[in-house]
């Protein structure tokens, strides 16, 4: 087997999002043990001008979903960012895993040179090749937002460590 | 061009480590503007039982260096973790970039099935195929530690944002 556009992306998304489910489970257990509302996590930030925990999860989800759709050349599904509980965020992550798994390798492989155009709210769209988009935009975004979510939970006292992060 | 073991790893390491140099520059400027010792960053943590900022940089460096060496089948160089200033950490990051760039694509490509054995301080070594090692260990470790370094700087008031992270 040689590495391919599908194998370089989809299994990494699925692995990290699955690990994230484990961190959410530990966050839930931590809240129950300390008898606080687990939905309190949703507003956590490391700085007041940062997006909160809930948004970190939603953007991580979007990074994976949009990458799969764009590399396959299908429309990116729009999902409302309306999760208001930890349980709903968990469901959003699971929905993302299922979406990533719904693509076959054949739909993604060979997309190295596909032109990927990302509309920006302000200014010119971003334009990448498929390979550049996967390696320097989608994967870094996924890792950025899951790691930030991890850091927020860690900062909030949840007992997670490197093995939870890597999912070994 | 098709994605390969070299192209899936080396340019991602170099891009993220180069972006990290930019965050360190902004951290230095922030310290100068506020007239505090920039070496104060080195001990920052988000929780008391977490490795400090300096160690996040050293481990990110190690993730990239060890991955290149192991995939190429050469001995992983040992670098002392003795950086005591922000300038020395910057030099460590640059040294890592130079090391990654010292490998040709031909040295790394085709390493998908190479057996990678990582000795652990306690217990059995970890054993991966080259492709699993790159995707589920080396890259996640690199992103974990650079993003944690980013989060520490962001938490510490340094004005960095997503475009600094992605390096666009």
Radius of gyration of chain A: 16 Å
Low-confidence stretches of chain A: none
How much of the residues of chain A is beta strand, in percent? under 5%
The helix/strand series of chain A, from N terminus to C terminus, equals HHHHEEHH
In total, the number of strands of chain A is: 2
Number of helices of chain A: 6
Multimeric state of these chains? Answer: homodimer
Largest interface: A-B, 39 and 40 residues
For the largest beta-sheet of chain A, the strand count, sense and barrel status come to: 2 strands, antiparallel
Helix fraction bin of chain A = 55-70%
The coarse silhouette of chain A is globular
Rounded to the nearest angstrom, the distance between the terminal CA atoms of chain A is 22 Å
Order of strands, widest sheet of chain A: 1-2
| Helix-strand makeup class of chain A | mainly alpha
Integer average pLDDT of chain A: 97
Short summary:
The structure is a homodimer of 168-residue chains. By secondary structure, the first copy, chain A, is mostly helical. The first copy, chain A, has helices at 5-34, 53-72, 86-101, 105-108, 130-155, 162-166, and strands at residues 115-118, 126-129.
